[in-house]
From TrEMBL:
It comes from the Bacteria. InterPro entries: Beta-lactam/transpept-like (IPR012338), Glutaminase (IPR015868). This is Glutaminase. One of its GO terms (molecular function) is glutaminase activity. Substrate binds at residues 63, 113, 157, 164, 188, 239, 257. It comes from Streptomyces himastatinicus ATCC 53653.
Length: 303
């Protein structure tokens, strides 16, 4: 299969969807992003990468960082994480508070904001600097040493972070955070603010397609752990739209309110698509449409 031709065909197909939806408004620095951007990249398991459109233009990774956080904690800490966070879909919005009280401060999964705060807390305890650990990992895997935090986005999110602060304090009241709430929030906001392109993210997510092997051939995750991260991405990676994403795309995926989505075809490749217009559940409209069309034309869903 000629990847460039497939991606060109996908880009042509989704052109009518580009600009649809709403750019995230609740983080003011993200509201300024041009809604008409679209890019898609594919990195095969050998690290060859190809793309179309705005595939080399950096954007805010936001919740896509949660997939990397989960992998980094599983790599160092194994299954112990599951005592502090579940792995069931929440069926609720990514920033919802409602289940936490009934479920004793244990978030449903590592990809809703509450779960990601617990993962960040654990990564911080394990490494002494959660956000820098993630940035260093993403630089190494993408082969792009220029990757950086965006301080404007991090500040913007911190200044409008009451919901995440509420989640963190609530979990702290149940003893489910080891570090002080302001520290956990700071590292969470910084990791969400990392700027990467589709190219960078497709390469950085390569270990998920290589059953846990990093770009340099060393092992980050066992095959079983890589399977588990992909499984949680399939069931929880697009929040209360995970069922629809599985139905349309049929791949493990992780979205972010910056408009990016990574998707994994285990054993074959990692994709990243970006277009900032979001649907009501916080997933890129053109991004989901592109992945839907990609798996339709290639017949490469996991189903
Ligand atoms: O905490 C937040 O709300 C954002 N930093 C990330 C949310 C997000 O990306 C949800 N994904 N679709």
């Amino acid at each position: 299969m000629h990847y460039q031709d497939v991606l060109d065909e996908v880009a042509a197909h989704v052109a009518p969807h580009i600009g649809r939806g709403q750019v995230a408004q609740y983080i003011p620095a993200l509201a300024a992003v041009d809604p008409d951007r679209f890019g898609i990249a594919l990195a095969d398991v050998d690290g060859n990468v190809t793309g179309v459109g705005d595939w080399e233009r950096p954007f805010s990774v936001q919740s896509i960082s949660k997939a990397f956080g989960l992998a980094l904690v599983l790599a160092q800490d194994g299954e112990k994480l599951w005592r502090r966070v579940g792995r069931e879909p929440s069926g609720n919005p990514f920033n919802s508070l409602v289940q936490l009280e009934h479920e004793n401060g244990i978030p449903r999964n590592p990809f809703i904001n509450a779960g990601a705060l617990v993962v960040t807390d654990r990564l911080h305890s394990l490494t002494g600097d959660a956000s820098t650990t993630m940035l260093d990992f993403l630089r190494a895997e993408s082969g792009n040493p220029d990757l950086a935090f965006d301080p404007v986005v991090a500040e913007s999110e911190s200044g409008h972070g009451d919901r995440n602060a509420a989640l963190a304090h609530f979990m702290a009241s149940y003893g489910n955070l080891d570090n002080p709430v302001p520290t956990v929030l700071e590292h969470y906001f910084w990791q969400c603010s990392i700027e990467m392109s589709c190219r960078d993210l497709a390469l950085a997510g390569g270990f998920l397609a290589r059953h846990g092997l990093r770009a340099d051939g060393s092992r980050l995750l066992s095959r079983r752990e890589a399977k588990r991260v992909n499984a949680v991405m399939l069931t929880c990676g697009t929040y209360d739209a995970a069922g629809d994403f599985a139905y349309r795309v049929g791949l493990p995926g992780k979205s972010g309110v910056g408009g990016g989505i990574i998707a994994v075809i285990p054993g074959r490749c990692t994709l990243c698509v970006w277009s900032p217009g979001l649907d009501a559940r916080g997933n890129s409209v053109a991004g989901v449409a592109a992945l839907d069309h990609f798996t339709t034309v290639t017949e490469w869903s996991v189903f």
